[in-house]
Each structure stands twice: as structure tokens, then as C-alpha cells.
């Protein structure tokens, strides 16, 4: 081979190595910090969080001293269909938080676009998803690094979650409730 061919091959190989390095760095950045948000998306996410926090603060204030009674009434209203209506975090950084389960399902992860945002080192950006399938809720692990656990067992495929079953993602454990 001529010297010119060897130089071109070396430069091409060097370019491929640099491309690989940039792809790895981009992947790490997006996994650690989530997707880039435009200013408009950032405002939408902040207003959504503000509304959710205001609703969470208003519910206990409206209930006053009758908070357990209110929860029981809501549970009996949902028991007619037998389908869970909310998620309650039982352990982890956000213990006690209750979130209504939207009919469209709920994405769980570190990303700011997740419906249930969990900020810990063991949770992926898009870690898992809870979706309604027929007459039950199903949890799907979205190829997370540390896995999703239902009743202490790591799941590898879509798994039905019953009311009261514990689901662990990272350091957070939650249950579905009526």
C-alpha cells in the first residue's frame, strides 16, 4: 500500500474513534441530565408541577381533621370498578406522596417529563411505565439499568400489578390503591 492510503486509513480510524467518544459522552449526558428542553417546554413543565403541588397542598387543607375519612370515601368510590385509581409512595424520598393514575398511564423516572419523577442514583430517566391493559394496571420496565421489582421480584416483561402490591424503583417503593 502507498503511504497516502495508510495516512487516509489512519485519519479515518482516528475520526471513528472521536465519533465513538462523542456518542458515549452524549449518551452519558442525556442519561444523567435528561433530554434538552426548549424554554417553552420548561415553562410547561414548571406550571404543571406548580399545579400538582397546589392540588396536593389543597387536598389535605380541605380535608382538615377528616383526612382518613376522605381517603376511605375515595377508596370506596373506586372499589366499584375494582381498579386502582392512585399511587401512594410508601418508602423513599417522597414517602406519603399520592398521585392520581391517569387513564393514559404513567411514566416513572428521573426525567422532568416523567409523570412520577424520582430523583435518585438508582433510577433511570425513563425507568418504568404503568399502563392500563384491559381491566388491570400493568408495569413495564423500560430497559432500566437497575430494574423494576414487583413484590420483591425483578420483572423482565409486562407484569400485572394488583391493588396493594408493592413496586420498587430505585430506592422508592409504592403501591397502587383504590
Automatic annotation (TrEMBL):
Keywords: Membrane, Phosphoprotein, Transmembrane, Transmembrane helix
Regions crossing the membrane: 6-28
UniProt cross-references to Pfam families, sorted A to Z: FHA (PF00498)
Alphabetical list of InterPro entries matching this protein: Cell_Proc_Reg/RNA_Proc (IPR050923), FHA_dom (IPR000253), SMAD_FHA_dom_sf (IPR008984)
Full protein name: FHA domain-containing protein
UniProt source species: Agrococcus pavilionensis RW1
PANTHER family found in the cross-reference section: NUCLEAR INHIBITOR OF PROTEIN PHOSPHATASE-1
Region of interest called Disordered, as start-end residue ranges on this chain: 56-78
Protein origin, superkingdom: Bacteria
Domain FHA: 106-155
Amino acid at each position: 500500500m502507498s503511504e497516502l492510503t495508510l495516512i487516509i486509513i489512519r485519519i479515518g480510524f482516528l475520526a471513528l474513534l472521536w465519533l465513538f467518544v462523542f456518542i458515549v459522552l452524549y449518551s452519558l449526558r442525556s442519561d444523567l441530565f435528561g433530554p434538552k428542553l426548549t424554554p417553552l417546554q420548561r415553562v410547561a413543565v414548571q406550571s404543571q408541577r406548580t399545579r400538582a403541588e397546589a392540588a396536593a397542598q389543597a387536598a389535605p387543607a380541605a380535608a382538615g381533621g377528616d383526612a382518613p375519612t376522605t381517603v376511605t370515601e375515595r377508596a370506596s368510590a373506586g372499589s366499584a370498578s375494582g381498579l386502582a385509581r392512585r399511587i401512594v409512595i410508601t418508602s423513599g424520598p417522597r414517602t406519603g406522596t399520592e398521585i392520581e393514575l391517569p387513564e393514559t398511564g404513567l411514566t416513572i423516572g428521573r426525567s422532568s417529563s416523567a409523570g412520577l419523577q424520582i430523583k435518585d442514583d438508582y433510577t433511570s430517566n425513563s425507568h418504568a411505565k404503568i399502563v392500563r391493559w384491559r381491566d388491570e394496571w400493568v408495569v413495564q420496565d423500560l430497559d432500566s439499568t437497575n430494574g423494576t421489582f414487583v413484590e420483591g421480584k425483578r420483572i423482565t416483561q409486562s407484569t400485572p400489578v394488583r391493588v396493594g402490591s408493592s413496586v420498587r424503583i430505585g430506592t422508592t417503593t409504592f403501591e397502587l390503591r383504590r
